[in-house]
């Protein structure tokens, strides 16, 4: 596990670069969302989760579910860097017969806990896993990373009620709150705010952090569980396309991937450390 904040920040920058190269080479992917969630995933995989890449099915591992499965690219670069499969395999992303599909597949990819893609499914699956751990008196924890647009799905709120009713304080939901979804800004399409108050009303313990500040992320992860007997909600305020100025907060980069010239400019920005 890494504890040096600077090393984690450098790793996040490295994986943003690797992600952009991978998506550009494939010609498809979700650039904005991948860059948005990267600091969250790096913090989890390299400083928080109890996992063993050599034993991906280890019974006592912590479980991480990426509910926003369309951002599989960000997940894959983290899994490869963590040692679940060779980094060279990233070059096969989304190609015919590749196991690195545009959405993660647990049957094919070590380290993937459940197939995700249809939004609104990840949290309910995580709730079931957390309940299983409680019933088995097991020490492993469940983390689920959601998008914010997908919180408009009713299945999430059914899961939220169930988790609070069963006192699943071994469950942590991290919301990648970048304020954008496929069609534009969440608050223009189907307003979510006041989001923190809604989770509290459903019986969850809530914290809000800067989702690009790894120090803040580690501090909040170290405080788990926030309240005995309550599931944990972390609203991580992020920017879609974080790290690249012409992608950041631009709704047009939900599906779009960089062409050769844009890739060169993006890599230059990340190499220079100009992330704002």
Task: Offer a few descriptive terms.
single chain; 276 residues; alpha/beta; Rossmann fold; five-stranded parallel sheet; 9 helices; 7 strands; globular
Please explain how this structure is put together.
With 276 residues, the chain is of the alpha/beta class. The protein has a single domain, classed as Rossmann fold (3-Layer(aba) Sandwich), CATH 3.40.50.970. 39% of the residues lie in helices and 12% in strands. A five-stranded parallel beta sheet has the order 1-2-3-7-6, sandwiched between helices. Helix 1 crosses helix 3 and helix 2 packs parallel to helix 3. The relative contact order is 0.17. The model has no long low-confidence stretch (mean pLDDT 97).
List the helices and strands and how they pair.
Elements: H1 5-26, H2 31-47, E1 63-66, H3 72-82, H4 122-135, E2 142-147, H5 154-165, E3 171-177, E4 180-181, E5 184-185, H6 186-189, H7 195-201, E6 205-210, H8 214-222, E7 232-237, H9 260-272
Helix pairs in contact: 1-2, 1-3, 1-9, 2-3, 4-5
């Amino acid at each position: 596990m890494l504890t040096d904040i600077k090393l984690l920040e450098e790793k996040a920058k490295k994986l943003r670069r690797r992600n952009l190269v991978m998506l550009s080479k494939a010609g498809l992917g979700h650039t904005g969302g991948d860059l948005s969630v990267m600091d969250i995933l790096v913090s989890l995989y390299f400083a928080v989760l109890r996992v063993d890449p050599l034993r991906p099915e280890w019974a006592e591992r912590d479980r991480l579910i990426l509910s926003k499965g369309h951002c599989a690219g960000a997940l894959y670069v983290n899994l490869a860097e963590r040692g679940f499969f060779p980094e060279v395999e990233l070059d096969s992303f989304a190609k015919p017969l590749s196991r690195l599909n545009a959405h993660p597949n647990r049957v094919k990819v070590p380290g993937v806990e459940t197939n995700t893609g249809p939004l609104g499914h990840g949290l309910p699956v995580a709730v079931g896993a957390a309940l299983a751990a409680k019933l088995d008196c097991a020490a492993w924890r469940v983390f689920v990373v959601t998008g914010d647009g997908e919180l408009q799905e009713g299945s999430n709120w059914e899961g939220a009620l169930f988790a609070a009713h069963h006192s699943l304080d071994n469950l942590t939901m991290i919301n990648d709150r970048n304020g954008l979804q496929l069609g534009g800004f969440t608050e223009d399409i189907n307003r979510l705010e006041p989001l923190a108050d809604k989770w509290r009303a459903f019986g969850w313990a809530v914290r809000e952090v800067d989702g690009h500040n790894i120090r803040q992320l580690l501090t909040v992860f170290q405080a788990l569980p926030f309240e005995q007997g309550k599931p944990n909600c972390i609203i991580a305020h992020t920017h879609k396309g974080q790290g690249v100025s012409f992608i950041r907060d631009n709704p047009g980069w939900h599906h779009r991937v960089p062409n050769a010239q844009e890739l060169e400019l993006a890599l230059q920005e990340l190499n220079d450390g100009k992330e704002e």
